[in-house]
Amino acid sequence: MIKKAILPVAGLGTRFLPASKSIPKEMVTVVDRPAIEYVVKEAVAVGIEQIILVTHSSKASIENYFDRNFELETTLEQKKKYDLLAEITQIVPEHVRVISVRQPQPLGLGHAVLCAKEVVGDEPFAVLLPDVLVKNDANTHDLAQMIAQYTQSKAAQIMVEAVPEDLVDQYGIVDVAVIPEQGESQAMQGIVEKPAIGKAPSNLSVIGRYVLPAKIMSLLEQTPRGAGNEIQLTDAIAMLQQSETVEAYRMCGQTFDCGSKLGYLKAVLHYGVAHPKLGQPFIDLIKELKI
Q1: Of 78, 133, 201, 269, which is least surrounded by CB within 10 A?
Q2: Structural contact between residues 195 and 211, judged by C-beta atoms closer than 8 angstroms
Q3: pLDDT tens digit string along 230-268?
Q4: pTM for this one?
């Protein structure tokens, strides 16, 4: 069972400027809570018990959000605002630990994952990119299915989703001999970064969820700097493929790229209309605006 998840949150969020100049992009709210809380809850829902934030000195507000705030809790209790008190004390269940390690230099996703090596130890782990929200229906949970597949096959899992053929040049695209059905995995032959339209091996893009063996850490230590002069996780995965099977898991749910402004607005709409308290008033507002 996978018990640890790495969330790389040290990035500068340049796609979300000017807001991210002073607010970590992960702390921008989607409806009534920060985007990163949705990602943490996604991990907790599948049995993750240790959330490892790979962070930066400018991101202290993320660590603070998942910590207790005694003064606020006391004030809410004194004012008998018990509903709000319950909300802020139940952001993370008591059995789940949120810890942080620093990424001293911006050297890429692979380097960020490597920064958590000492915490991960010899255990397999998940990586969740907090820019991406994954929305599932009540009957499916993609991360849970990835973990179940890893447990069964011991093959690293890379979550992918189908994208329009004319957009493949904007993504990392996996090369698979057989296109998997939704909710299933197939062995990968490789990953092609932003292939030319018409030359892509598939239309399945990598979307920011991984289940990886501990061995990937030693491979990351050997990975030279690649694209952008950074240590790339995809390069280490390519090295892993030389000795082990790596599988592409085709997701069932829907993703929102909250690192981009339009993706963020899409997330607000979708999560807004589904909100248990605000959903119907929000729908009424949309109708009123005649959008």
Answers
A1: 78
A2: no
A3: 898 989 999 999 999 999 999 999 999 998 899 999 999
A4: 0.93
Q: How many domains does the chain have?
A: 1
Residues of the chain with pLDDT under 70: none
CA 143, CA 127: separation in Å to the nearest integer? 10
**From CA 44, how far away is CA 155, in angstroms rounded?**
22
Q: Could you tell me the residue range of the domain that residue 86 belongs to?
A: 4-289
Measure the CA–CA gap between 87 and 202, rounded to whole angstroms.
43
Q: Which of left, alpha, beta for 195 (phi over 0: left; psi -120 to 50: alpha)?
A: beta
Angle between helices 70-78 and 82-89 (to 10 degrees): 160
- CATH code assigned at 137: 3.90.550.10
Residue ranges in 90-232 assigned as alpha helix (H): 109-114, 117-120, 142-153, 215-222
Distances (CA, A) of 184 to 129, 130, 237: 21, 23, 20
Distance linking the first and last C-alpha atoms of the chain: 46
Any idea how long the chain is? 291
